[in-house]
Structure formats: structure tokens, C-alpha cells
Amino acid sequence: MSEIWTSIRRTPYQSLASFLILFFTLFLSLFFFNLTSFFNGMLSYVETKPQVTVYFQNQTKEDDIFKIRDSMVSSGKVLSVKYISKQDALKIYRDLNKNNPLLLEMVTADILPASLEVYAKQPEFLTEIAAYLNKQPGVDEVVFQKDIVEKLLSLTNTLRRLSLFIMIFLLIIAFIVLMTTTAFKIALKKDEIELLRLLGASTSYIRKPFLVEGMLFGVASGSLAFALFYLIFLYFYPFLSSYLAGIPSLSFYNLGSLNLYVWPPSVQFIVATYIIVVLFGSLIGFVGNYFSTSKYIK
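Above: the chain's sequence. Below: its structure in C-alpha cell form.
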């Protein structure tokens, strides 16, 4: 460690440049990682909801509704169909408005429509299912959520591509800066390296301080990026909680069984995020300095 601190003191500006490029790379990576994870959780949540809901006219008989339900099930294009009777609709309505007695007194089961909640096996079946339901007798309204799912899917895919592009760009810049600064440090220690060679030191022994320094910079910059990101997050958390009110817990890539929730972020998710960003930072620092020492220490 003393060699590393000595190297930092001898080349403060080069060390600062390496640290800052790693910090900004990891901070932006952390930002896009959390943003992409959030929208992926939203997409998974929306896809668990009824993708097509059909409401029937009050005079539609229950047997006719069951015929439509059975015909959809037999088509092989739906995953499941749930029947919501008038009484079920009234119960749902009462649960939603239990804090407003006036609204409860005004509504009875007779004026609420029966409905079917349809889950399609594949997103491409949604348009066909909605078109089929619109043609059935007794249907009052078909609520189709394909646009919501497609917009979320498009946004998530766009974020993934944008994140990948930014990550590749930042990694290239980070490697160039790390290799340049490390090459400068190697040049300053040229006499020491030659002396170590004369004393019989191996190449791996000479390279070790540079590799450890790169990993140390990665851990330090990753820790700072993590701390700053979550300080900003905690500052905006009251606003985000108000703006996203009503959105349930969103799991991280369906890993809710491990208590990994991206919204609101669980302790397990925060800890996992820190471990990932620190390991990623140390890997960048190690690889950057590894290539630089491979090139300039023969």
C-alpha cells in the first residue's frame, strides 16, 4: 500500500484523472442500471394485469358471457380468462371506495357491468382477441392495454440500447485515460523498474502495484458514485413516492423471491447494487492497468 500512496503523491493529477473518469463512468452506469431496472419492473407488472378487459351490457345473460369465455379458451390463444360478475364488481367497487360512504350509497350491483379479464399467451394475439370481442353480441366496451405494454417495451428497449452505447463510450474513454496515466507512471518509475529487473524481480511482481492501484481506484470511485447516487435519490424520494403513488413493489427482473425490489428499493437490492458497482469498478481499473502494464513493462 505504501508504494501505491507514494505513486499517487508523485503523480496527483494523473491519479485524479483516473479516479474521476472511473467515478463518472460508474455513476452514469449506476443511473442507467437503476432506470432500466425500474422500467423492466414496470413492464413485468403491467404484463401481469388483464391485457384485455371486456365489459358487457346489463341485459347480457350470464350464459352468453360464458359462451364467449369458452370460445376464447378453446382458441388456444389465451392464457386464462377470469369472469367478474355484477356482485364481484360491486365488491371491488366497495373496496376501492370504502372511505367514501356517499359513493357507496349511490351504487348497486344492478348498475355495474359484468366483465371478463383476458390474459393472452402472446402479445401478438391481443389485437385479434380485442377484434373478436368487439364483434360479440352484448359487449359494451373492450379495454385494450396493448398500447401501454408496447410503449413500455419500446421505452425499456430504447433505454437498454442507450445505456449500452453510453457504457461502451465511457469504457473506451476510461481505458484510454487509465492506460495513458499508467504509462506516465511507468515512465516515472523507469529507473526503479530497471533496478528491480537487475535484482531478479519478475514481471508479475513489478506489475502488481499498478494492478492493485487500478483496483483500489475502482473500489474508491465505485463507493463514491454509489454514495452520491443514493444521496440524490434520498433527496428526491418524497417527490418520487408522491409521483409514483399507487405503483406496487417492482421486483428486479422477477427476483422478488430474493427480496430484490427496485421500487421501493429493498435493502437487499441496495446492497447488491453496491457490490455490483464496486466489482465493476475494480474490474475496469484492473483491466485498464493490465493492458497498460502489458504494453509498457516487458
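The radius of gyration is 29 Å.
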